[in-house]
Amino acid sequence: MSPTRLTLIRPDDWHLHLRDDTMLAVTVPAAARYFGRAIVMPNLKTPVTTTAQAVAYRERILAQVPVGSSWQPLMTLYLTDQSDPAEIRSGAASRLITAVKYYPAGATTNSASGVTDMRKAYAVLEAMQELRMPLLIHGEVTDPAVDIFDREAVFIERQLQPLMADFPDLKIVLEHITTREAADFVAAADDHLAATITPQHLLFNRNHMLVGGVRPHYYCLPVLKRDLHRQALVKAATSGNPKFFLGSDSAPHLRHTKESSCGCAGCYSGHAVLELYAELFAAEQALDKLEGFASLHGPAFYGLPTNTDRIELIAEPWELPAAIPAPGGELIPLRDDQPLQWTVRSLAS
After folding, report:
1. Which residues of 185-200 are buried (b: 16+ CB within 10 A; e: fewer)?
2. What is the pLDDT of residues 266-279, one digit of tens each?
């Protein structure tokens, strides 16, 4: 019989979009509700490419942290064709830059400034390898001849394997993996490669997005795949393998930008990230593996200490709001059509 209550070391979110300006008043308190830290994505409308920009963005984020919360944003830099190794060294010296994010140009939201040819970034990658600064990868090719459902697997073959051969000591996180090929590749690789897995890719497949009509709030990039891929991700996440850890990829877009003729890619899960994961782990009879996935594996890979306090989860259903008010409109929470089965009730002593 599954437990109805469990305590966890306070978890962290290793892949989070907060956006900027007025949206921070919604996204930051949600992130700080029970996480200790979060890796903050740098793909703002004006990408965060320098340490000075990251420091300024961090201050805007910290201004929205609720009083009494110790939650901390871990800042990243956006890799471009023009990125300078000196900037990476400056960021590392500041101790405020945790990682660098690689977006293939044109792959996803605000990625137009991304890398057009990985070889143009090799000088930066050499510096990162020396500094042991992780490279966070959106792992998809943007070749229009490659089917959108195949872009992650093709990326692994064409770009990730050569990259790892050229930089064998570079720490890499393949973010928001979506395929059996990615799960198998990460599991078989050495300890320099890890992966994050989102709640949407564990709970849903492409039928949820497409059967009975297009449901834009399930649309994200990389896109949801066949259920055989979802099952492979579930196996990886619940395996206890330290190479896999929590990264929500919570990505807020206002409702009218999702429900449009060209809807934005991204699922908003910031309202209930841990509750969504807990539901999946409970369904798989793997709640004993949740603390590793949510609280231990990420800090170990990044070389950071685990959090020292704990949170409590209770098997108690609650109704999600149909919409969450946000500046300029509203956000539709991931899975707004049925109750969630787990509640973060209190801090455990």
Report:
1. bbbebeebbbbbbbbb
2. 999 999 999 999 99
